[in-house]
Amino acid sequence: MSSKRRRGDHAEEHENHERWAVSYADMMTVLVALFIVLYAMSTVDQAKFEEPAPVARRGFRQRLRQRHPGHARRA
């Protein structure tokens, strides 16, 4: 056998002992994003929230009437 082949058989691969850090960093990124979204959802401007409400209400009523045409209309 050639010396190159023998060296290839005994060569040890470098093992990465810090691969947990990548998973940890990914999890921390997801958690930070989650808390940012939760915070953004917790501060609701009441005027901005009420503005599209009537439009959405009408839209849902129309869909309800389309699906169940026999039901009476509620205010």
Automatic annotation (TrEMBL):
Domain spans labelled Motility protein B-like N-terminal: 4-51
Keyword Transmembrane helix in annotation: yes
TM ranges: 21-41
Database matches in InterPro entries: MotB-like_N_dom
Location of the protein in the cell: Membrane
Keyword set, alphabetical order: Membrane, Transmembrane, Transmembrane helix
Main location: membrane
Protein name, as recorded: Motility protein B-like N-terminal domain-containing protein
